[in-house]
Here is the input.
Amino acid sequence: MRRLAHSPGMGSLRTDLAAIPVRVFPHRPYVFVYRERRDGIDVVRVLHAARDVASLDLGAFTQPP
Here is the structure.
């Protein structure tokens, strides 16, 4: 997680999951859904890799702070 916090651009940018773009980073057996911040990241969800990320409604979790 520290590596991801220091290099938040490592995850794939997803604009289709919520109104505010999030990034998705797989780290087996999980997938981290997060937002970039100036000083690191905000983890939105941690999901098992078997879940269909595209089918989730992340709107409530990605509102501006």
Summary: Strands lie at 12-14, 22-27, 30-37, 40-48. The radius of gyration is 11 Å. The chain is about 10% helix and 40% strand. The CA atoms of residues 7 and 40 lie 8 Å apart.
